[in-house]
Amino acid sequence: MTDKDNAVFNTTRQPPNLRSGLADTLMAQIESGDLKPGQRLPTEQAIMVATGVSRTIVREALATLRAKGLITTHQGLGAFVSNDPTPRSFSIIPNDLQSIDEVLRVLELRMGIEYEAAGLAALRRTGEDIDRMQDRLDALDKALEEGGYGAQEDYAFHRSILVATQNSYYSRLFDTFGNIMVPRQWARLDKMTSAERKRHAARMRREHHAIFAAIRDGNESAARRAIRTHLSKSTARFEELRDASTSS
């Protein structure tokens, strides 16, 4: 491997989440053409030396690239940029969400998607859509009342909103999130007191009911406001968790 081949790694930054930072750098170099289709990547040792990260971090970053179809590996030969490295589909895999900052990025993306979807759902929802959303909301209420996370029920309710847009591309895109859209390990409900958990559950129920009521009533602007309020408050909570972990 030549010095030129290794040079692209020499400016790799080391953010708090090193695996994510290395994977992002490699993806950017592949997408920009700095690393060309069919080109062999430097060895794990060479990447470690160039970036200063551990072998474990390097292997996790390469595993992320393999999962996205950007590189292939050959036994005894190493890793190579895929001949067609342009991702054919968008996905968010669990390894993508290893820090609160990454969860916040997903929430930011969801804001853009769901803000528009809520408005469309209010304009286009059918009786069947309303019944479906009500069922999903009831399931979420039950999960929260029983003290659970309600992650799957939360996902199902939000997905029912996208289905109500009558535009299948919305729900198909949302399916790339799955129920990892807010990973349970970051919810930190186990760190809350009983009173805090009750307040959290009450807030969740109140916000979801406001979203449902606006869509059910066909109020486009209220539906947009309700979904923005809900996701903004979720974002604020994760920012507080991030700041608390940074200061501790």
Brief descriptors of the model:
248 residues; mainly alpha; Arc Repressor Mutant, subunit A; Four Helix Bundle (Hemerythrin (Met), subunit A); 2 domains; two-stranded antiparallel ribbon; 10 helices; Tscrpt_reg_HTH_GntR; transcription
Average pLDDT for all residues: 82
Sum up the overall morphology in one term: globular
Reported for the largest beta sheet, the result is: 2 strands, antiparallel
| Overall number of domains | 2
Number of strands: 2
CATH class of the largest domain: Mainly Alpha
Number of helices: 10
Query: What is the fourth-level CATH superfamily of the largest domain?
Result: GntR ligand-binding domain-like
Report the sheet-strand fraction: under 5%
Oligomer: single chain
Residues in helix, % = 55-70%
Note the gap between the termini. 43 Å
Instruction: Look at the helices and sheets and give the structural class.
Output: mainly alpha
- What is the fold-level CATH name, i.e. the topology of the largest domain? Four Helix Bundle (Hemerythrin (Met), subunit A)
What's the Cα radius of gyration?
Answer: 21 Å
What is the CATH architecture assignment of the largest domain? Up-down Bundle
Keywords: DNA-binding, Transcription, Transcription regulation
Domain HTH gntR-type: 16-84
GO molecular function: DNA binding; DNA-binding transcription factor activity
Protein name: FadR family transcriptional regulator
